[in-house]
Write a sequence for this structure.
């Protein structure tokens, strides 16, 4: 991390510094001969456009010193995910998280959130991301049910199924089981029992879910599944 390109007081343009960070992942021109190298360069350029586009939507064109100290390592992790071939839908989540943190109170922004999200989402298929986007509605459905005690807020596959049905999407119950299991195995939800019920596996919100859900909800709509 000490070798990351650092912004200077004369280079506080988001595009310039982002280009400098991206360059760390692009081979020298004398090396770019193989198609794989060209493909990586194109993906990095597309990722740059995605990240700059999300930041531009916030109205930001320049950043304070405090925001640069957050942005440089966050952007570096973003481009690292591109380098390893991350899916576009997961990159969109990371870009929205970075832009949202820059738009908000930078004093409370934690660059570790980007690393945690990147780790948990790495190569997550789009259908699983869509399922995660439906979980919040599933929690609402559970909370409105007669079995909710108002304290143990959790969901199971039937709640997720109802969430998809609420959006007009027909999915199978076994798929809902599969999606919830995968999401919990990645740490995006916490799997546990429910004190008021014997047997069964239920899924709870956790800190990572709370950190990234707002960004996920903006891109993974059930109509796209």
């Amino acid at each position: 991390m000490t070798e990351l390109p650092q912004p200077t007081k004369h280079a506080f343009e988001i595009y310039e510094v982002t280009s400098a960070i991206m360059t760390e992942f692009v081979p020298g021109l004398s090396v770019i001969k193989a198609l794989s190298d060209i493909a990586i360069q194109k993906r990095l350029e597309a990722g740059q456009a995605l990240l700059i586009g999300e930041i531009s939507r916030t109205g930001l064109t320049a950043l304070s010193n405090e925001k640069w100290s957050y942005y440089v390592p966050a952007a570096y992790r973003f481009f690292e995910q591109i380098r390893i071939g991350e899916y576009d839908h997961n990159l969109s989540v990371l870009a929205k998280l970075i832009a949202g943190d820059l738009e908000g109170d930078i004093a409370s922004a934690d660059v570790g959130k980007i690393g945690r999200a990147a780790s948990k989402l790495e190569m997550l298929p789009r259908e699983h991301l869509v399922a995660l986007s439906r979980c919040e509605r599933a929690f609402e459905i559970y909370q409105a049910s007669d079995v909710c005690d108002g304290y143990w807020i959790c969901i199971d596959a039937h709640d997720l199924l109802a969430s998809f049905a609420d959006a007009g999407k027909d999915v199978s119950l076994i798929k809902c089981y599969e999606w919830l299991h995968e999401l919990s195995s990645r740490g995006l939800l916490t799997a546990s029992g429910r004190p008021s019920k014997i047997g069964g596996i239920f899924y709870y919100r956790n800190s990572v879910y709370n950190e990234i859900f707002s960004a996920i909800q903006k891109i993974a709509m059930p109509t796209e599944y």
